[in-house]
From TrEMBL, chain A:
Gene for this chain: Dana\GF23199
Domain Ribosomal protein L9: 68-114
Cellular compartments per GO CC: mitochondrion; ribonucleoprotein complex; ribosome
GO biological process: translation
Superkingdom per UniProt: Eukaryota
GO MF assignments: structural constituent of ribosome
Protein name: Large ribosomal subunit protein bL9m
Automatic annotation (TrEMBL), chain B:
Residue ranges, annotated region (Disordered): 253-274
InterPro entries: Ribosomal_bL28
Organism annotation: Drosophila ananassae
Gene behind the chain: Dana\GF23657
GO molecular function (one): structural constituent of ribosome
Protein name: 39S ribosomal protein L28, mitochondrial
A single cellular component GO annotation: mitochondrial large ribosomal subunit
Phylogenetic classification of the source organism: Eukaryota, Metazoa, Ecdysozoa, Arthropoda, Hexapoda
Highest taxon in the source lineage: Eukaryota
């Protein structure tokens, strides 16, 4: 009976009726020696120094945090599309998604509020969350296209494919669109000259890839001198070679 | 006998040392502030730094005697810095460590890990850079937002003057209908709908007095008292009386009777003319008296 009276004022003081799980991300200590027992509803007895000897039970700061789930409000590059419920690390979620207002907490109301409408579903703008990242990567590099110095050749998509593979990108030949003009060689006038080709990702996103021609011979004495970090240098565009056509339907 | 003592009949329940709300200005603080004080200082906060035992009784391992469980919270120290940041209920713990069985205990302070981060309030529509702990951020996530965290938690759990001040500002903003979002009526309505329920437990006076430290509350009270008993100086009062009397006597320098009240547009000019007339009245006798004494002064004809 006494206990029930004792508890009620605490509940009245609560500003909202919510049951909260206790989170502990801090030092959790316990007493090495239990303090002496005191009378019910009386002040605790005076404690001695030994009752202030604490032992560390757990330091929760060094524990791994579980992932956090949020609903995306818009398309976020590298994360997901609008209305997706994504689960990521809490600091990333808070700093990169919640604070800039790109996402909301995962509640049923928010899920319903930010779900994609039919109109938005039909108008696909992004093939995947990661495609734009690949586009950015492709557009930031200068691709070295190394061709033979001795044998005659005509530039074909598989040359670009092989060069991309050397740079760490794997793609199919259908994705590569070369410029309309034929690029033939060997021609040392074309050494270290630029041209552009288009890479189509998931049949949707298009990346403009900057390529630079180089000549290479199997005979070591015939080889051109080595140029350190050629991609940092200024260069000229290839003469008579324009940009590739923009027609994703035909090139896939 | 009891009525003769300063505490009156209350002495019958035993002598009680007068506290901060029993003497001086503190006794004049309203009940609204005392309610907040009870919530802030006289309530046991949630266990942050220890795990309270759930059961009521436990058996002693050696003697097998049944003993009651008494959870005595660890004493925490609230540093001044804790009131400048939002530490989410954490505080400094002062105690000892027993590192080796054969060695003397060593004093030790357990201090929370602090970092600076940004919090966003929807109601105030503001981003704030504050010093927080990991626990604060986790609680914000658990409550689904900073505003919910402030409004859901009691003052004793917030444990920071800054958080309490922000809570008062949020409550006041909600009371006024979120003035920060006046430009976006749709969002304003959404925010009001989401957070409006938190206004229920408070009366307007309680919100006004919420989240002040004791000193701030005293200052606020002093300001209120000072404003209530603002005294008009006798100088001003008597002067206006005199002017009124002069007017009624029909003296032209005092201005005309009705015009000053009826014509609001030119009241300022009339005031000026009144003052000029008054200064003339005051200065004229003294100047004549001075001119008599001063031999170099121009003689009045």
């Amino acid at each position: 009976m006494l206990k029930s009276i004792y508890v009620t004022p605490l509940n009245l003081l609560k500003s909202a009726s919510t049951v909260q799980q206790q989170v502990r991300t801090t030092f959790i200590l316990k007493r090495k020696y239990d303090p002496p027992l005191h009378k019910t509803n009386e002040k605790p007895r005076r404690m001695r120094a030994k009752h202030f000897i604490y032992e560390l039970v757990e330091d929760t700061l060094v524990k791994k945090r579980p992932n956090m789930q949020v609903v995306l409000k818009t398309f976020v590059e590298g994360v997901g599309d609008k209305g997706d419920v994504v689960s990521m690390k809490p600091h990333f979620v808070y700093n990169k998604l919640l604070l800039p207002g790109l996402a909301a907490y995962n509640t049923p109301e928010n899920v319903a509020k930010y779900a994609k409408t039919e109109a938005e579903k039909s108008a696909v703008k992004h093939s995947s969350a990661y495609a734009q990242r690949t586009v950015n990567m492709l557009e930031s590099i200068v691709l070295a296209v190394v061709m033979n110095k001795d044998e005659p050749w005509v530039l074909e998509p598989w040359h670009i494919k092989a060069s991309l593979r050397k740079a760490g990108f794997h793609c199919r030949e259908e994705c590569i669109t070369l410029p309309k003009e034929r690029i033939e060689g060997p021609d040392l006038k074309k050494e270290n000259k630029d041209f552009y080709c288009t890479i189509t990702i998931n049949k949707l996103e298009q990346a403009k890839l900057k390529c630079r021609l180089h000549h290479w011979s199997t005979d070591p004495s015939e080889r051109l001198p080595y140029v350190l970090e050629h991609w940092k240098m200024e260069s000229e565009p290839l003469l008579n070679v324009g940009l590739p056509e923009k027609s994703p339907e035909t090139t896939q | 006998m009891a009525h003769a003592t300063p505490q009156g009949v209350k002495l019958l329940n035993g002598w009680k040392r007068p506290g901060r709300f029993d003497k001086g200005l503190g006794a004049q603080l309203p009940e609204a502030y005392r309610k907040f004080w009870r919530e802030w200082k006289l309530t046991t906060p949630a266990a942050v730094h220890y795990i309270p035992k759930e059961q009521e009784w436990q058996r002693d391992e050696v003697t097998h005697a049944i003993l009651p469980v008494q959870n005595i919270p660890l004493p925490l120290i609230d540093t001044p810095e804790s009131h400048q940041g939002i530490w989410g209920g954490e505080a400094v713990i002062k105690g000892f460590q027993k590192r080796q069985q054969t060695k003397r205990r060593v004093p030790h302070f357990w201090v929370p890990n602090l970092r600076r981060s940004v919090v966003h309030s929807h109601v105030l529509d503001a981003y704030m850079s504050v010093v927080v702990t990991e626990r604060t951020l986790e609680q914000i996530h658990e409550c689904h937002g900073f505003d919910h965290y402030l409004l859901k938690n009691r003052a004793c759990d917030l444990r920071s003057a800054l958080a309490l001040k922000l809570k008062r500002e949020v409550l006041q903003a909600l009371q006024k209908g979120v003035p920060a979002l006046d430009d976006e009526p749709d969002r304003q309505q959404e925010v009001l709908k989401e957070y409006g329920r938190y206004l229920e437990p408070y009366t307007p006076e309680e919100i006004d007095w919420y989240g002040h430290t004791y000193l701030e509350a005293i200052r606020k009270l002093q300001k209120q008292l000072r404003e209530a008993e603002k005294v008009k100086p006798h100088k001003v009062e008597f002067r206006s009386k005199l002017i009124e009397q002069l007017r009624q006597a029909g003296i032209s320098e005092a201005g005309k009777l009705e015009q000053t009240d009826s014509q609001t547009g030119s009241s300022a000019e009339h005031k000026d003319s009144d003052i000029e007339a008054l200064t003339k009245l005051e200065s004229s006798p003294s100047s004549s008296w001075l001119s008599k004494i001063n031999p170099f002064g121009k003689k009045e004809t």
